[in-house]
């Protein structure tokens, strides 16, 4: 009778054992795939943000040089905004993905860029495509 009881216990416990094994295997595989997918997403998103900020920096540096070469008194506000944008970009934490205010700082940079474009009376169109990224006017 004890042998028969052990056989029934094994059958009843098999469901729980297989459930536990399946959960552990699924969790391990999901964790691995999640890390891979997260790394890919981070790489793509990081490249987009870097490309966007790089375009803003090049835009601001070029206009700062152009405004200094034409050094008129009325351009001083434009130069100050361009310098402020350059300063914000230089202080941006590129290598610290855990920075709490990353999105807030990025939004501030975008806002300063829009302000500079407004002062310069240009309508930029920032695009990221498979061929590359850039600004067009």
Detailed description of the structure:
The chain is rod-shaped, with a radius of gyration of 28 Å. 10% of the residues are buried. A two-stranded antiparallel ribbon has the order 1-2. The protein has 3 helices and 2 strands, in the order αααββ. α1 packs antiparallel against α2. It has 137 residues and is mainly α.
Give me some keywords for this one.
single chain, 137 residues, mainly alpha, two-stranded antiparallel sheet, 74% helix, 6% strand
What is the ordering of alpha helices and beta strands?
A: HHHEE
Helix content: over 70%
Indicate the mean pLDDT: 83
| Order of strands, widest sheet | 1-2
Largest sheet at a glance?
2 strands, antiparallel
Q: Report the principal-axis shape.
A: rod-shaped
Share of β-strand residues: 5-15%
Query: What is the first-to-last residue Cα distance?
Result: 87 Å
Radius of gyration, rounded? Answer: 28 Å
Contiguous runs where pLDDT drops below 50 for at least 5 residues: none
Class by SSE composition: mainly alpha
The counted number of beta strands is 2
Number of DSSP helical runs: 3
Please outline what is shown here:
By secondary structure, the protein is mainly α. Helix content is 74%, strand content 6%. It has 3 helices and 2 strands.
Ordered list of secondary-structure elements with their pairings:
Layout (H helix, E strand, L loop, with lengths): L1 H68 L6 H15 L11 H19 L4 E4 L4 E4 L1
Antiparallel strand pairs: 1-2
